[in-house]
Amino acid sequence: MALAYGYARFVEPRWLKTTTISLALLPPTAEADGITILQLSDLHHSDAVSLRYLRRSLQRAINEQPDLILLTGDYITTRIDDERFLEILKLLPQAAPTLSCPGNHDGGPWAQAMAGYATTGPIKRLLEEAGIHYLENDWTLINVRGVAIAIGGMGDLWARNCEPEAIQEAFNTANADLKLLLSHNPDSKAKLGALNWDLMLSGHTHGGQFRLPLLGAPFAPIKDKAFLVGLCAYGNRWIHVTAGLGNVHGLRFNCRPEISVVKLVRRVEGETTGTQRSAP
What we know:
The chain is of the alpha/beta class. It has helices spanning about 1-10, 50-60, 85-90, 90-95, 110-115, 120-130, 170-175, and strands at about 15-25, 35-40, 70, 100, 135, 140-145, 145-155, 180, 200, 230-235, 235-240, 260-265, 275-280.
């Protein structure tokens, strides 16, 4: 038991892996055949997740040479308590355009009940000061190597602030080659069906964080565990859930922290395919 606890406390939370998925979502006529998106989530800066670890993780992620960086929430566990966090976040937009959405720990009624912020204002200011485009029930259009990508960022489900109607008309009619959603909690998919999107990126689950033989991930904070982690088909759409970089309570077991790389390639007319692989 002591060995298992020592491993879960001192080894696995820092044993970072890189997972790459490939999706044929670009139009057959797209100028670029291969766009690299870096998805990072659940940094959870706190006493349990050090700035030293986060700096090392972000630098390793940037080495993937992304065209676009997308962040899917929970940048802190309770509050921003070290100004050096801002300098670490600045590494991301220096490498590629970076966009973000909030998570349940980033402000709102749930976060406030857990000694966090009553609103997402402090996190919004932090990210924007770092040069990161913040989207909360908002969307934008970005051109990446000749491909027009509409990106919508949702408010958090647990914060009772996931409001797809705020962007529905504009987002659905946007003239874009590809439409992506950033939504922290994959359970939010039930509220987002009226939005026209190709791929949703989520975090929140930490991949289960504590995965036990035979029992699976009994503590995973989602209802639909079919979307616990990885690339999942959702009708004719895709959802990718990353295990994230950080943790709460300083523990991980059988569920390593993760850098997620999404490779977008041209699709064959009438087909959409996806594959996933992990690297040490």
